[in-house]
Design a protein that fits this description.
Order of helices and strands: EEEHEEEHEEEEHHEHEHEHEHEHEHEHE
CATH topology of the largest domain: Quinone Oxidoreductase, Chain A, domain 1
Helix content: 25-40%
CATH architecture of the largest domain: Alpha-Beta Complex
Bound molecules: zinc ion
Structural class: alpha/beta
Radius of gyration: 20 Å
Number of domains: 2
Length: 362
Amino acid sequence: MPQEVRGVIAPGKDEPVRVETIVVPDPGPGEAVVRVQACGVCHTDLHYKQGGINDEFPFLLGHEAAGVVESVGPGTSEVEPGDFVVLNWRAVCGQCRACRRGRPWYCFDTHNARQPMTLAADGSELSPALGIGAFAEKTLVAAGQCTKVDPEVDPAVAGLLGCGVMAGIGATVNTGQVGRGDSVAVIGCGGVGDAAIAGARLAGAARVIAVDVDERKLRQAESMGATHTVDSRATDPVEAIRELTGGFGADVVIEAVGRPETYEQAFYARDLAGTVVLVGVPTPEMRLELPLLDVFGRGGSLKSSWYGDCLPSRDFPMLIDLHRQGRLPLEKFVTERIALDEVEHAFDRMHAGDVLRSVVVF
Ligand SMILES: [Zn+2]
Ligand SMILES: [Zn+2]
């Protein structure tokens, strides 16, 4: 029987979001219905509401979620009812060239649930944010979007691994390959940058330098494990990073802003043959200009990190376990817990830079 539950809808460009009754169908083959326990409010949800992602309104927002599998469709082997899971953006196909080469995080043919969820009022189809749509009491996803983790963890904390926090940790640990004793600089200390800092600490980096223009964010970066901070309004960050690394530059620089000027800072703030990881997301009109001789002469590697190059089945349970051991302070990303009807207010607070994450708890 299809179920009626409450969910947060973005009805049209720049219109306030509102709670509506939505219809969640029974899971079909390869699908699962998940009873959502917690879902974080992310900038990407705001971008959907503003029409910045696409114009397939109405959207069912929410995508950083954890919950319990309620039911699964026929022939589903990934999870079973009762499993506590963290949701991810996309189920991998297992068949494409990337999957067959053992690199499923680059899968070319990812998928979400095939059946639509709809508005109860008029039957219109909903576009779930990032294929998830978890500001709802229940949601329908592809079973491959569910990753089982230790159920002892706080769902508000676990859900954050589904997006920004994983992107940041993965940028350092997976893409940047930070190792024990490395020096790491992180430019831009919002949620993703702070997660990169926590990831660098987890990986054993000896020196973790946080760079931002906002004093509040630098203090927060320290609480995540930054050993040094640089206010780039007051100081040239490239000079400051070199000074803090014996004149060399950092082994790995994480660019978590996604702008040409901060990318250039990252490029020159690394040691010879060092690594730059771009995890901040640029906009289409941005252009980068660098002396090609410097790109060649300085060696090393310039990488981009999509979703932290994560493999949910490998990374989510591991990071939850490390969190449970007290080695990864994921709880610090949860600034406040809110109700389903407070998402619009949470957007305002996020916009003002007051919170790292507001998390809807059910
Ligand atoms: Zn997100
Ligand atoms: Zn694939």
